[in-house]
Design brief:
Elements lengths: L2 E4 L7 H4 L5 H14 L7 E6 L2 E4 L3 E3 H4 E5 L2 E2 L1 H4 L2 E4 L6 E4 L1 H11 L4 E5 L4 E5 L1 E4 L1 H14 L8 E8 L4 E4 L3 E7 L9 E8 L2 E21 L14 E7 L16 E3 L14 E3 L8 E8 L2 E9 L8 E6 L5 E8 L2 E4 L2
Parallel strand pairs: 2-9, 3-10, 20-24
Antiparallel strand pairs: 1-9, 2-5, 4-7, 5-6, 8-10, 11-13, 12-16, 14-15, 15-16, 16-17, 18-19, 20-21, 21-22, 22-23, 23-24
Length: about 350
């Protein structure tokens, strides 16, 4: 349906009057319109309103909510006419085309204004909408950039608790993510600082945690204390490793070790459960090497305890029967300094 608005003086509605265009500005606008837009007496303005409008500046321009023609030709000068105050970021306001037409009649002169479109127009300030989907995208990107800090496995972002949707002004958008724990794994929240044109415009916190599901070394049978571990004793099982303490991700890291304590079947094997096999066993006859400069001596002794590589143990000299502290060097060999 096409509506006609004939030339008449109509008081502008209150919300439109907030523009407060001074009389001189109105006069200059009219002159600009007449001399630069091709306006002449007897001209007809046609306006086709849209249902929605995204607004760039502090004033709503006619061209942001409608297309405008003057005597059948599009008129960009008239489309630059301000018609209302722009809503704040995140707010949606409703304009009635009839009120816009009434306002234009107080600032522009035309024999006829024809218009058509919806009964109301929803307008909002243009900007970056930051909703749950955008927050999830930001955190997923952050996780992807830090994959080298995670063990291989399936990484999931769970229990996401984003803030209410908000809108940021237009410009060059950037952001910085900081997890609640420096190692990322185990974090319960993430701080996100948003910048537009390198200026901080929003600082928000997002609840959520990262889960990583990966294969870990698990005891396939009951392992007793001191028992050497072979490939038959372990299996690989996929687990949520987020809260595990130092698990093993490769069988090769466990095979050849021994259990420090009893490990039940089906339990995930952690680093504090195992230790390397000793190079020297308690009661074993070992060679004691003593070196000083070019002088080298060796005697036999009896190990007083099991010894791991580099560990200091007591060894009884077979000849003198004295106890000597020695460093485990190799299978059957210890060293002493003098």
């Amino acid at each position: 349906m096409i509506f006609l608005a004939t030339k008449q003086r109509v008081r502008a509605p209150h919300f439109l009057a907030l523009i407060r265009i001074p009389a001189l500005t109105t006069f200059l606008l009219l002159l600009s319109f007449m001399f630069f837009s091709g306006y002449a007496l007897g001209s007809t303005i046609e306006i086709l309103f849209q249902e929605k409008g995204l607004i760039a500046g502090d004033r709503i321009l006619l061209g942001e909510i409608a297309s405008v023609t003057l005597d059948g030709e599009r008129n960009e000068a008239l489309e630059q006419s301000p018609v209302a105050i722009t809503p704040k970021l995140g707010e949606i306001h409703t304009l009635e085309p009839q009120n816009v037409i009434s306002f234009l009649q107080t600032t522009l002169v035309a024999d006829t204004i024809k218009w058509q479109g919806p009964k109301s127009i929803q307008v909002q300030r243009d900007g970056f909408i930051i909703d749950k989907a955008r927050i999830q995208e930001i955190l997923s990107t952050y996780i992807g950039q830090n994959l080298n800090r995670f063990p291989a496995g399936d990484i999931r972002l769970v229990s996401l608790r984003p803030p209410p949707t908000f809108v940021l002004p237009k410009g060059k958008l950037s952001y910085e993510v900081t997890p609640s724990k420096p190692e990322i794994i185990g974090s319960s929240s993430f701080a996100i600082i948003f910048r537009v044109d390198d200026k901080i415009v929003k600082n928000t916190s997002v609840g959520g945690r990262i889960e990583i599901h990966a294969e870990v070394v698990t005891a396939a049978v009951k392992l007793t204390r001191g028992m050497p571990i072979t490939s038959e004793h372990i299996s690989m099982v996929k687990q949520n490793i987020t809260r595990l303490r130092e698990p093993f991700f490769s069988p090769n890291d466990v095979i050849g070790m021994r259990a420090k304590k009893t490990i039940s079947s089906g339990r995930i094997i952690s680093k504090h459960h195992v230790e390397p096999l000793p190079l020297i066993n308690k009661g074993e006859v070992v060679k004691i090497l003593a070196n000083k400069g070019r002088l080298s001596l060796s005697v036999l002794g009896i190990a007083g305890k099991d010894g791991l590589p580099g560990e200091m143990i007591q060894v009884r000299n077979i000849n003198s029967r004295k106890l000597v502290y020695c460093r485990v060097y190799a299978p059957g060999i210890v060293t002493v300094e003098f």
